[in-house]
Amino acid sequence: MNSKVPFLLLFTFINILSAQDDTEPQKMTFHSETKVVIDNDIFAVFRDSDRYYSYGIGLEYAFKKEKFLGLQKLFKTKKNVFYSIGLKIEGYTPSGVREFALTPEIEDRDDFDRPFAGLLYATLGATYVFERSFVKSEVLTGIIGPSSQVGAIQDWFHENITGDPIYDGWQFQLENQFILNFKSSLLYDFNPSAKWFHIYAGGTAHLGNLYIRAAPIAGFRIGKYRSITESSGFHNSILLPKKNSELFFKFNVETRFVAYNATIQGNIFDDKAYGVDELNNISWHLSSGLFYSLNRFSINFIYLWSTGVLNDTENHGYGTFNVAYRF
To answer: Are 221 and 197 in contact (CB under 8 A)?
Structure first.
């Protein structure tokens, strides 16, 4: 096959998508959106065992409201604002968990590289949209520890759905503690008028007793897409016009500067029975995904890969699958 054929097919595909772009934006938009989020390292096909961030299941609801808790008063120059609430569980396991299923005794945290940790939390967020950027602010509150029931959920799923072994180790998970964290992020579009390729950059910051970290972010999209201020690729799809379509690939990279991670280190205010004392303070995180939206419906799959979370030589990969419906 001629080596130029794949490139010709790609540019033909992009031209078709660009030609279908709406010449005038639709004024009618949605009022609310429901989203289901499923994270699992089983989506990393090159792995055969749970490891580090093992799984997550979440439900999110985004909505528009003229007034909500006074949050509408912030950022006087904003063009739009919407709010969101969410509920999610997350499970974290060490390396070699299959070996633990066959181990009669596990004595202490020296038997694994990171602790078992279960996290259950709720979120409340607000997104403020500007001409070519947006700001997201979110408060997270919940519990980390056995009361999250994350270990019991994983055991049930393995026993009744997948047939995987029950891991002997959740009894050594991090102790119960209340979690309160704040997150803020900003993203800016460098070439919003581009039809099929554009780049963006921004950053996020977390502060609380779950995460203390900050990260600059940069990335690009290619395909057919709406502005980052209303796109499904940036959790802003409630602002899509009722008649819409998106199909694009997105890639971004971030460098995390981490001061504390409670899912690894345990309680920041108390002695840690199973938490890891030392943490690598700089890590790299890459994500790449396919995003599709059509009118009320969005679906996407994202693969995330990181290195250096525990030490410079370790890496981890998992996938996230999201489905959203707008009303």
So the answer is: yes
Nearest to 82 by CA among 59, 61, 65: 65
- Cα 198 to chain center, whole Å? 21
Fold of 28-319: Lipocalin (2.40.128)
Q: For the ranges 164-178, 183-197, 206-220, which has the lowest average pLDDT?
A: 164-178
User: How is residue 183 written in tokens?
Assistant: 């997150």
> Of all helices (H) and strands (E), which one includes residue 127?
strand 117-129
Q: Which two tokens stand for residue 147?
A: 């009361």
Beta strands in 130-176 (DSSP E): 133-144
d(C-alpha 157, C-alpha 149), whole Å: 12
Q: Cβ–Cβ contacts within 10 Å for residue 216, how many? A: 13
Between the CA of residue 80 and those of 25, 30, 62, 74, 77, what are the distances in Å? 15, 13, 14, 11, 9
Q: Give yes or no for a contact between 100 and 167, defined as CB atoms under 8 angstroms apart.
A: yes
Cα–Cα dist 296/111, whole Å: 49
Amino acid at 155: D
pLDDT in tens, 83-108: 999 999 999 998 877 666 555 566 56
Q: Which residues of 128-142 are buried (b: 16+ CB within 10 A; e: fewer)?
A: bbbebbbbbbbebeb
Backbone angles phi, psi at 264, to 5 degrees: -110, -40
- Which pTM does this prediction carry? 0.88
Could you tell me how many residues make up the chain? 327
Where is 224: in which H helix or E strand? strand 211-224
- Is the distance from CB of 17 to CB of 247 less than 8 angstroms? yes
